[in-house]
Amino acid sequence: MANSDPKPPPSDNALRRVKELTSAVKELLREAQGKGEFSHPVRTLMKESPATCAPGDSLRRAAEILWNADCGMVPVVDGDGRLVGVLTDRDICMAAFFRDQAIASLDVGSTMSQTLHTAKPDDSLETIVHLMADKQTRRIPLVENERLVGIVALADIARHVKSLESSSACRMLSHTLAAISERRTSATTPTSQAAE
Length: 196
Description:
Strand order of the largest sheet: 1-5-4
Shape: globular
Oligomer: single chain
Number of domains: 1
CATH class: Alpha Beta
CATH architecture: Roll
CATH superfamily: CBS-domain
Helix content: 40-55%
């Protein structure tokens, strides 16, 4: 007998999961507002000296950087180390698809986003999570004197929140986010990876 309730397509499941996580993150932000564990500077969580690319690099080179660094966004810097844009794995895919060209023939400068949502390493973690929520971004480049000094991702915050264990709801959210943010093993194929 045929099943009368077909399973929703994987994209529907992914969308439902994203909505659940977004709701949980908003709840976490409401709980965390003004609490001491979110008052320390993001410098303590940031990844220093992240891998970068230049506007003249090919999208193929940028994709290699993203793969090797196991991340979903690469900062774009000029010759003086100033942040001039950001490029995500999604940007690369969309450029290749819509331009119908090999990524080796497309450059970073023509594809990167120049709309930058940045913070400083001494900004509080609370400031960072509010910026992420407000700008709907999972990664924030950290700059001093216009130069890139680090980056913090939602995954970094999830791992930090997991260590706090300040409430059962926070623990459940943090464990979920931390599990999603686990680093891939060498046996994992690129197609099974979600961007951090």
